[in-house]
What we know:
Protein name: Beta-ketoacyl-[acyl-carrier-protein] synthase III
Order of helices and strands: EEHEHEHEHEEEEHEHEHHHEE
Subcellular location: Cytoplasm
Organism: Epilithonimonas arachidiradicis
Strand content: 15-25%
Distance between the termini: 22 Å
Catalytic activity: malonyl-[ACP] + acetyl-CoA + H(+) = 3-oxobutanoyl-[ACP] + CO2 + CoA
Structural class: alpha/beta
EC number: 2.3.1.180
Amino acid sequence: MQKLRAYIKGTGSYVPPKILKNDFFEKVGSSDEWIFKNLGIRERRIAEGEVTSDLAYKAGLKALENTDVTPKDIDLIIVATSTPDRQAPSTACFVQEKMEAPQAVAFDISAVCSGGLYGIAIGCQFIETGMYKNVLVIGADTFSTITDWERKDSVFFGDGAGAILLSATTEDKGFFDFKLHADGTGKYHFNIPAGGSEIPASEETLKQRLHYFQMNGKEVFETATRVLPETINEILEANQLTSDNVDWVIPHQPSIRILQETARKTNIPFEKVMTNMDKYANTSGGTIPIVLDETFKSGRVQSGNLLLFAAVGSGWTWGTALYKA
Length: 325
């Protein structure tokens, strides 16, 4: 029996129409010049009248366009999000209903900015074992709902969703390796303190603004620029490849400086690193699926190209993947 692989059959993305430019953040002591120079961000999208499942659902439908797969053919929907519609049920169940895919299994995962990559890895396992044929992986976040607009770190995030339709193939293409990692000792460097079982919601937690994300920017930068090069080198060495073999890098969008430093440390020319944070900022779980959709639709990816996926997120969580187009 031939080995099954998961390949990308379709991609889609959706961002809300409202644009918030950098000049908005002058009131918290930042500026367009500083934000663009250090983060690479010009503007971001903000959801109004839409929740996370709305963004996810619209991206999911776009991923099915130009394929022979309908919502009724989807076996599994995985939604990677840190901003679910509700604590229960899962956002994936809302998406399943909206897409009219009643036979699809549906669940969420939480890995914050690594969520898109973790979701792909999970989806691939179901396909490689032969359990499912079509898996829809969606990364979607509305970070505007957990942003304290009075803090300087409010400049980092935007809202958006991307979707990847994974299907089974026996051809010489698809995802062929993942290296995933986590380190819970970094849990307090990016977190939302209240709202869970540790610190349930109360009048006092609202007064203390504990339902918004809190970030240690220095720790994020130092961790990201250490673990991303390490895991990129790890997966390349494990597959007897070098940075010269990589055609395109599909990364999470943490900041332009983090990606530049990662490229420098791994000897990957920065022109191979796909970015869109100038338009959307950091959309957390949505970053990799959105930039992948844009890269595919730009016509850059050719048959046989080697794609390197990389992400780092709260937890800490991080990882890489290799894909042959």
